[in-house]
Amino acid sequence: MVRDKMALELGAKGLVRAVVIGASLVALGGCDTLASLNPFDTTEKYTMKIEPDVPAEQIYDQGLNRLKDRDHEGASKRFSQLSKNYPYSEWARRGLIMEAFSNYEAQKWEDAITASKSYLSKYPNSKDAAYAQYLMAMSNFNQIPDVTRDQERSEKALAALEELVQKFPKSEYVSDARQRMQVAKDQLAGREMEVGRYYLEKRNFPAAINRFRVVVAKYQTTRHVEEALERLTEAYMALGLTGEAQNAAAVLGHNFPDSVWYKDAYALLKSGGLEPREDADSAISRAFKGLRAFALGE
User: Fold this and answer.
1) Region 161-177: what's the mean pLDDT?
2) What is the fold of 56-186?
3) What is 192-296's CATH superfamily?
4) Which end of the chain is more exposed for a tag (fewer CB within 10 A), N or C?
5) pTM
6) Which own/partner pairs from 163-169 qualify as long-range (CB within 8 Å, at least 24 positions apart)?
7) Cα gap 234→264, rounded to integer Å
């Protein structure tokens, strides 16, 4: 009880001291200072300034002018202002696609992706939806690293390009998208080959086989598939799986008879007293049959 009483007394003294100091400061500052410190004083009124609205068309033109001057960041900011000032309007829609384009031109890939995704979410059936999809795909595509690094960007680019072709098959961007798809697939296959060769060198044959089979199953149209089939022949032979080795070599020879990789695979089989022999029911054989049927339009 005594301690509580002392605390109360100390608190009261502190409050009195603060009031005294505050009063002294007010006295030193004069009457004007006192009035400014008084929250109930009504002698000075706050005047609210209302900024005039800038017409949407003017903001849009400002963005275009900044693009013309290659001020892509400034253009993006002006276009983004349309969504804030005129939401749910046609100007907001036009501003959003131009914001994505401005960020793309500035090589601000993540901002371009974000704006493109936002556009597709809000306006999936608009006339510029295909272009938004293309910008998103290309923003990922332009970040594809070399095959020695993780290929997440390649996967994202490929997925976005495939979606473009599927959703907008009559779009003017489809032809370019198909070419980019092939590049992305080649990059992904190259990464699988890089890892597969590493496992093959370390004599981890099952792990190597898994990597090479991915190339054969998913990336048959890439430049890596011939080597993948030859490496499969090597790995299967090393494990004593002669039937699988013969099948891989036979599929290689059937589809790429003039390939130097087939010559190597054939020589390897011959050194073991074997000949290429295709198993028509194997997964590898079926995959290439499907590819040939697609190419022939069957």
Assistant:
1) 98
2) 1.25.40
3) Tetratricopeptide repeat domain (1.25.40.10)
4) N
5) 0.77
6) 163/133, 163/137, 164/130, 164/133, 164/134, 164/137, 167/129, 167/130, 167/133, 168/129, 168/130, 168/133
7) 9
